[in-house]
Write a structure and sequence with these properties.
The protein has a six-stranded antiparallel barrel with strand order 1-2-3-7-5-4. The protein is globular, with a radius of gyration of 17 Å. It has a single domain, classed as Thrombin, subunit H (Beta Barrel). 5% of the residues lie in helices and 65% in strands. It is built from one helix and seven strands; from the N terminus they run αβββββββ. The model has no long low-confidence stretch (mean pLDDT 86). It is mainly β and 114 residues long.
Length: 114
């Protein structure tokens, strides 16, 4: 019988690196504020577009609203509300599904201006 760690094999297929930040409460002169604390840096991942692109047009700009899926190693704890930065784009994480033996699958939302 072979003892194979499938997560390492899948990690080798990921084509991107991302960083994960978590909004963290900080006390600023008696007031609670939030800043994004770095949780993971340069983790291997893959991001795929899911469900297409939507957006709207106004006189001043075009908005973009995309839903993506982030795939990464299940050892990384990515929570809903975390900020994921990959290829210069900033995404907000949703509730993911962890497949302990293979990967973690997390929905991401990207909102931008074209």
């Amino acid at each position: 019988m072979f003892d194979i760690d499938i997560t390492n094999i899948i990690d080798d297929t990921y084509d991107k690196k991302c960083s994960v930040f978590r909004p963290t409460a900080v006390d600023t002169q008696g007031l609670t504020d939030y800043e994004n604390k770095l949780i993971y840096e340069n983790i291997s991942c893959s991001i795929n577009l899911r469900g297409g692109t939507s957006g709207s047009v106004t006189d001043d700009f075009h908005t973009i609203d995309n839903t993506h899926i982030l795939y990464t190693n299940p050892k990384y704890e990515v929570y809903a509300g975390d900020v994921v930065v990959c290829d210069g784009k900033t995404y907000i994480a949703g509730d993911g599904v962890r497949y302990e033996l293979s990967h973690h699958q997390i929905p991401l939302t990207y909102k931008g201006v074209a």
